[in-house]
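Re: Re: ligand-bound prediction request (bumping)

Still looking for help on this. To restate: I need the protein modeled with G3I bound, output as structure tokens. Inputs repeated here so nobody has to scroll up.
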Amino acid sequence: MKFLMILIFILSLSLVACGGDGGGSDEETNSESDADSDSDSDGDSDGDSDGDSDTDGDSDSDGDSDSDGDSDGDSDGDSDTDGDSDSDGDSDSDGDSDGDTDTETGGDGDTDADGDSDTGHKTCDNPATLKEAGECMEPPMLIGAAIGKLWGPIDPKCYGESRCLNTASAEHNYVTCENEMKWQVIEPNRGQFDFTEADAIVNWAIGEKMKVKGHTLVWHSQMSEWMNALNADETRAAVENHIVKVMDHYKGKLYSWDVVNEAVETSTNTGDSGAKMRNTVFYQRLGKNYIDEMFQFAHDHDPSVKLYYNDYSIDADNEKFAFVYDMIKGMVDRGVPIDGVGFQMHIGPPNNYKVTGETVSKNMRKLTDLGLEVLISEMDINMCGGQISQDTQLELYHDVVEACVKNSSCSAITFWGIDDPRSWLNNFDEAQCGGSGAEPLLFDGNFGKKETYKRVMAALTGK
Ligand code: G3I
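Reply:
Sorry for the wait, this slipped through. Here it is.
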């Protein structure tokens, strides 16, 4: 009799592992997630800010039990899927040792805009890769990387190094071109477009079943010189033409766009004081409403992609975040079609380093309370030859990723590169700190997983 009960228990566990609602990191769950999370023609897709669609379509994102009545996503420690107590007598869903990828909530019970309690993403145990950790969450989270083909501190660049690309596609399901979609590359001369470099990365990513975020349509940096000579009408015509041509070229291929990048500046790059609109060619010629105009224009042209504002040093309790928040709230109040805000999360010199999990969490929550998505869009942590200790780096990697996991409207985390030696920080003067030791990413020069990878994985699995 005892043997029969054990057999029934094992059989029911394997049924859950094969068909589990969202906890599975098995192939079936992954392929469902891939299929479901593609952007469809009307722009609806998984991972959207309302958090109401999921990988398999049968469970909601509010932390309730899913519709088939299973309770395997519960975090409350009550009965597990088969209702049996497990071998150690516990009856919770995450304490078992059977190797399942049971889900558990990453939530901290924060209250969201509707007054509901946001329990965050439900996470699962034992995913084999970062992207699997994101895919088996409820709602799912995209895990991205910037891929470079043009510039960087060493050759070959990531795009030319098979180990780099293999690591990228094994561990990530979201890609940003590090430089190749920027204005100076795509439209170096007025009306002359060159998509060669960006196309290589986009086509590779799509072939690997990865989603792509366009970066970036409107940015003062890496801008073509010819824009400086234009008056207001010519500037408006030029920027609209740029948006139309670039969005058309990638229509149906991209998941999202950084529409406007870094439109706010402070007296130093740390974001502490002196926040104001950056005095860019767009601001000078088109006035303070240019951001509204650009989002509306991009949305009208292609309503199927998500549209984000993206900035750095907005991860702390500082003046820059307060300014950006007011700007974004104004946009939302005016009905400007914006889907979300990217926190670049370049931590350490030359940017902000007064970051904690709490400040990130608080700032993200303020924006998601407006009904927006947030995402970590360019993460790296520059140790700067010891200015940030390894312990601090590890703690920050964990706590910042955890802040995203605990907010169900935090839809993606992108790391700004794959391996340390290819990081932009190694040849950016202001980030040099005497020329040594940025070591900012998750993989070393041999594409081995660093401690940073392990801390990120821990946070992605709710640990
Ligand atoms: O423009 C010259 C080019 O003509 C020349 O051939 C080349 C030779 O090395 O140098 C070029 O300058 C490069 C520049 O991008 C392009 O303007 C630099 O070498 C290169 O290091 C530089 O850095 C990029 C940086 O953006 C520029 O702002 C980084 O690779 C890239 O990682 C970085 O990415 C930005 C994001 O887009 C926005 N957020 C901040 C992030 C980090 O700065």
